[in-house]
Write a structure and sequence with these properties.
The protein is an all-alpha fold. It starts with 27 loop residues before the first helix and ends with a helix. The protein is elongated, with a radius of gyration of 35 Å. It has helices spanning 28-42, 46-60, 67-76, 104-117, 122-139, 142-157, 172-175, 179-194, 197-206, 224-233, 237-264, 270-282, 288-300, 313-320, 323-329, 333-349, 357-366, 372-382, 388-414. The longest helix has 28 residues, at 237-264.
Length: 415
């Protein structure tokens, strides 16, 4: 046996990492360059671009992994870096924001067709729009923001993206220099060319935007007068009418709140109330028929009787106190008929008042608020269609009595 000492040795085997187990490097710039090269090969042809995306890009490139990069390139021509700058200043002109206004619809249709074929990209598209809205102050100029706003309108109309992504327009950095306003103006213009105002306001409501649109304007420009003038300048007449409608609604709400304060105040001043109503009518903040409707409905809803199935006499006593004020407001047969219709509609909408209509009209007649001619004219041809059979039936005997009273008066005059 040899007396030689054996040296220690390392035992075990070296494991070679399999190629399939190696983590693939994330190289967005390589993907970007490949997409840009493919787009520039097919040129500015929407059909060819869609075919390239569906047949070549999705087949040869990892579109699922680089979906955000793909959308960045299609929208702005390059990768949007954090903060909004275009990464490496590498940018292609074959993208949405380098199109002309007349080309935007056709280019946006590429997104619509592509997303319908590859549904998994739809959520990413919504996130992409939200991201670009947040950084468009940096990555897009005013013209490009207009094109982007127009494309966003088309995507919203088709239901490809959710309306709530528009809520980002109220961010303070987007209010500066009218960035949000210019984007929204382009969106509104495109929408109204394709759809109606009602569908637009519905979308804005879903986006939790103020219907008056004040929250997308800078603080110093949020008066409705300024907003109306802005849309007049932009020749968006439907938006002008929308702003006027919002002003009317705001005036109505303010008037209603003030009347409610007066009515619910036990020590209210009749002279002060009358002065406020007349001033609101004279200044055009509220029309006389609306003032009559609000005053009557506020009185009707002010007492305990409003929650009772059968209206008690306390209501009629309360209403009688305002006869002089009503009389001062209804200075013509036309206004009297409109007032009767407002009462009719209130009684129809509030079921516990359904059977009180005739008694209310009779009391206002006795209080010299309503005249025979107005009541008879309402009954014969100018009544509202709401519950007309019910209310005409209630008024039949009273109208018959009024007509006979008129005949007797005319006979007395002849004698």
């Amino acid at each position: 046996m040899s007396g030689k000492t054996l040296k220690p040795t390392l035992s075990g085997s070296r494991n070679k990492t399999r190629k399939r187990d190696e983590k693939e490097r994330y190289e967005p710039s390589v993907f970007r360059d490949a997409i840009i090269a493919g787009l520039e090969d097919v040129g500015n042809n929407p059909e060819q671009i869609l075919r390239y995306l569906c047949e070549t890009a999705t087949g040869k490139l990892d579109v699922k992994r680089y979906g955000e990069v793909l959308l960045d390139v299609l929208f702005v021509g390059g990768i949007i870096a954090p903060g909004g700058a275009i990464e490496g200043n590498v940018r292609t002109d074959i993208c949405l924001t380098r199109m002309s206004h007349s080309e935007v619809k056709a280019f946006t249709n590429i997104f619509i067709q592509f997303i319908r074929r590859y549904k998994w990209l739809q959520k990413s598209l919504g996130e992409e729009i939200r991201k670009i809205i947040m950084v468009m102050r940096v990555c897009l100029d005013e013209v490009e923001r207009g094109l982007f706003g127009s494309a966003t309108a088309y995507l919203l109309i088709e239901g490809i993206i959710p309306p709530n992504l528009l809520s980002g327009l109220t961010q303070e950095h987007l209010l500066k220099d009218d960035v949000a306003v210019h984007f929204a103006t382009s969106l509104f213009r495109t929408w109204l060319q394709e759809r109606d105002l009602g569908s637009l306001t519905s979308t804005l409501k879903k986006a939790s935007l103020d219907p008056s649109l004040q929250d997308i304007f800078p603080m110093a420009q949020r008066s409705l007068d300024h907003i109306e003038q802005y849309f007049e300048k932009e020749d968006l007449n439907e938006m002008v009418q929308h702003v006027r409608s919002q002003r009317k609604n705001n005036n109505r709400k303010a008037f209603m709140a003030r009347i409610k304060l007066y009515i619910n105040d036990d020590d209210y001043n009749t002279t002060e109330l009358t002065g406020y109503i007349n001033d609101a009518i004279d200044s055009g903040r509220v029309a006389t028929p609306m003032a009559l409707q609000i005053l009557f409905s506020t009185i009707a809803n002010s007492g305990e009787w409003a929650s009772q199935e059968i209206i008690q006499d306390d209501f009629y006593k309360e209403l009688k106190q305002y006869c002089n004020l009503f009389k001062a407001l209804v200075g013509s047969d036309k206004l009297q008929i409109e007032f009767i219709n407002k009462i009719q509609e209130f009684c129809y909408d509030n079921i516990n008042f359904l059977k009180t209509f005739q008694k209310i009209i009779y009391m206002l007649y006795n209080g010299n608020v309503l005249e025979e001619e107005a009541i008879i004219s309402w009954y014969k041809q100018h009544h509202s269609s709401k519950g007309q059979l019910q209310f005409l039936s209630q008024m039949e005997k009273m109208v018959h009595w009024l007509e006979n009273a008129e005949e007797e008066d005319s006979e007395d005059d002849e004698e």
